[in-house]
Design brief:
Layout (H helix, E strand, L loop, with lengths): L2 E9 L3 H12 L4 E5 L2 E6 L2 E5 L2 H7 L2 E7 L2 H10 L3 E8 L4 E6 L5 E6 L8
Parallel strand pairs: 1-4, 5-8
Antiparallel strand pairs: 1-5, 2-3, 3-4, 6-7, 7-8
Length: 120
């Protein structure tokens, strides 16, 4: 499995107020999306999230988002290594993702950026 990078997940109260800081810090523009009532802005290595507390409570349990070359390959390897895939792989606006609980109990999201991804 090729790991291409990782994003730090940050839950913020006011996404619009947070974005300019992270754009200046990371030297790039925010890519925005929305999913399940949660507003998301990806800025460099930061994944900012804002929305209903009930949704953020779940999202805070995810340690980090790991970019991989192929989510299907990650699924196979994670399963072989004893991780428990609890969601996915499912399509996203930019590719596919899955959530996995590692044997130590930590939760990670794995994403790829295959073309042809669509809004889930």
């Amino acid at each position: 499995m090729d790991i291409l990078g990782a994003s730090l997940r940050i839950c913020v109260e006011d996404l619009e107020a947070a974005i300019p800081f992270y754009e200046r810090l990371a030297g790039g523009r925010a890519l925005r999306s929305e999913r399940g009532g949660v507003q998301v802005a990806a800025v460099g290595s930061f994944l900012l999230m804002s929305g209903p507390e009930s949704e953020l409570e779940i999202l805070r349990k995810v340690t980090a988002t790991i970019a991989v070359k192929d989510v299907e390959e990650a699924h196979r390897l994670l399963t072989d290594l004893g991780a428990r895939v609890v969601a996915g792989p499912v399509p996203t606006p930019v590719g596919r993702n899955l959530l996995a609980v590692h044997p130590d109990g930590s939760v990670f999201e794995y994403v790829d950026h295959h073309t042809g991804g669509h809004q889930a």
